[in-house]
Amino acid sequence: MSEYRIQGNSGAWEVVIGLEVHAQVTSHSKLFSGASAEFGAEPNSHVSLVDAAMPGMLPVPNRECLRQAVRTGMAINAQINRWSRFDRKNYFYADLPQGYQISQLYHPIVGEGEIEVTLNEKDPDSPTKKIGIERIHVEQDAGKLMHDQHPTMSFVDLNRSGVALMEIVSRPDMNSPQEAGAYLKKLRSILRYVGSCDGNMEQGSMRADVNVSVRKPGGKLGTRTETKNVNSIRFMMQAIEYEAQRQVDLIESGGAVVQETRLFDSDRQETRSMRSKEDAHDYRYFPDPDLLPVELDDAFLEECLASLPELPDAKRARYESDLGLSAYDAAVLTAEAETAFYFEENLTETAARIGVAPAQVAKPVANWLVNTVMAEANNRSITINSNDFATSANSSIISMMFSGTISSSIAKAVFVEHLATGDKPEDIVEEKGLKQTNDTGAIEAEIGKIMAANEDKVAEYRSGKDKLFGFFVGQTMKAMQGKANPQIINDLLKKALG
Questions:
Q1: Phi, psi (5° rounding) for residue 368?
Q2: How would residue 275 be classed by pLDDT, with cut points 50, 70 and 90?
Q3: Does residue 77 share a domain with residue 61?
Q4: Percent of the chain beyond pLDDT 90?
Q5: In angstroms, rounded to a whole number, what is the distance separating the alpha carbons of residues 457 and 455?
Q6: Where is the domain boundary, 388, 408, 431?
Q7: Could you tell me if 496 and 448 are in contact, meaning their C-beta atoms sit under 8 angstroms apart?
């Protein structure tokens, strides 16, 4: 898919990448207790006796957390294991009150699947690649250590302790930072469509452990390192670039890559060693004696499948085939579930306002949202479905463009005025006299004046300089104060210029 190589003194090196993505499951309560899983509460305010590992407190699996993991597996066409089991992963750390983490090493709830990605979703000709998913298992999160400003004390917040995570483990199928970025972006999109994780990486509800190794192209796999808890796609790509180059430089200088856990310093854009990498036997995994195996019946699986929404790939294909959208617009509008919902809401209201089938106005609605509303949202650093961008205002403006009441340039000016004042678009058009004119006589008169004042350009145009046509269009629009129908201007100019 992408020919990415690290150039060293001994030639080119290939990068091999695998990701372990930890996605917090969308659930009101934790994996094995009824305590709230809400983010941002006061420290230690969402902690049950189970979370604090008080003696005699037994875990009880949260059905919704298991359901969300199964739905996620179905969304990536993965094998769903009807029988799975929880294991104890034993290690000691201050934010792990039990002295072990309940996870699923040997029998995960979801088996192998795959995700198809492209380096550029907006380019219909961009090559695709399938990234294998090895497994999805469910486990509980640890707490959080908070350090005093003076390095004398550390505090433990157990609000996250016991929160349900899906660990989504990819195959080492990625060979560039761009592929890893495309994979993580696509995975995040799917999770948000399904509703199994909110994907808010800045809040830590989705983060990636990045496994990187290097080798000569097609050669034996090298020793990998794992960079822990990277919480943005951009940081992950930077971590891969740095770590791959570091490994190549180390090997070529006569050293050897050590299997270890590293962290990424986003300020310095570099990885640093944390500790040697543990293997499974170091954690002394064994079946959790307090939890029975999980067995899924037909009714549960059928309900999970029936609850899945239309997923981004299917939605994009439908937008192109049924609504006639370009591959670019379809990709932009389906990249996030919220954007697709916003588009469909605008499409439904606009079609109803005009009185036509949605397919008849899909292109103008898409063009308006992609080129005007999304651009304005980016300028304001807010989302497209913000309250600032009301569907009723969009449908009003698009309807006036569709009927020829206003031109596209006037439409943008009306939109900006609406955002500034909150006035209804139709009132702005009426009060400011912005209605488009179809008066051919007035337009012809202005065209005559422009041609008389630019006889040299008329002669150049007639001698073959076709690009000058745009000059005459611009001058006519300027003379008509932007209120003339562009199609009528084009037709009359072609007639007048010959």
A1: -65, -45
A2: confident
A3: yes
A4: 73
A5: 5
A6: 431
A7: yes
Q: Do 327 and 366 touch, CB atoms closer than 8 A? A: no
Query: Is the pLDDT at 141 greater than 80, yes or no?
Result: yes
In a 13 Å sphere around the CA of 85, the CA atoms on its Cβ side amount to: 14
Q: How many CA atoms lie within 13 A of 17 on its CB side?
A: 30
Residue 1 clears pLDDT 60, i.e. is over it: no
**Chain-centroid distance, C-alpha 492:** 46
Burial string for 305-329 (b: 16+ CB within 10 Å, else e) reads eeeeeebbeebbeebbeebebbbeb
Whether residue 236 sits in one domain with residue 89? yes
Decide if 483 contacts 437 (C-beta within 8 A).
yes
| Residue 101 amino acid letter | Q
Residue corresponding to tokens 């795959």:
114
Q: pLDDT at position 2, please? A: 58
- Tell me the two tokens of residue 93: 């750390």
Backbone angles phi, psi at 274, to 5 degrees: -110, -55
pTM, two decimals, is: 0.87
State phi, psi for 22 to the nearest 5 degrees: -100, 115
Are the C-beta atoms of residues 22 and 166 closer than 8 Å to each other?
yes
- Could you write out the three-class secondary structure of 76-135? CCCCECCEECCEEEECCCCCCCCCEEEECCCCCCECCEEEEEECCCCCCCCCEEEEEEEE
Domain of residue 64, residue span: 5-304
Task: Give the CATH number for residue 456.
Answer: 1.10.10.410
Kindly report, residue by residue over 63-105, the tens digit of the pLDDT: 999 999 999 999 999 999 999 999 999 998 889 999 999 999 9
Q: Token pair 């943008």 is at which residue?
A: 412
Q: Could you say which DSSP state residue 31 is in?
A: S
| Four-residue CA torsion sign, 395, 400, 404, 408 | negative
Residues present in the chain in total: 498
Q: What are phi and psi of 385, to 5 degrees?
A: -95, 25
Number of domains in the chain: 3
b/e per residue 476-488 (b: at least 16 CB within 10 A): bbebbeebbbbeb
* Helix, strand, or coil (residue 155): strand
- The string of pLDDT tens digits covering residues 103-126 is 999 999 999 999 999 887 667 678
DSSP 191-245: HHHHTS----GGGTSEEEEEEEEEESTTS-----EEEEEE-SHHHHHHHHHHHHH
Paired with 437 in beta bridges are 484
What is the residue whose two structure tokens read 């999980």? Answer: 294
Q: 131 and 207 share a domain?
A: yes
Confidence class of residue 281 from pLDDT cuts 50, 70 and 90? confident
Higher pLDDT, 408 or 17: 17
Please name the residue that has the structure tokens 């809401």.
345
Q: What is the pLDDT of residues 294-346, one digit of tens each?
A: 999 999 999 999 999 999 999 999 999 999 999 999 999 999 999 999 999 99
List all residues 6 or more positions away from 344 whose beta carbon is below 8 Å from its beta carbon: none
Same domain, 219 and 346: no
C-beta of residue 116 within 8 angstroms of C-beta of residue 313: yes
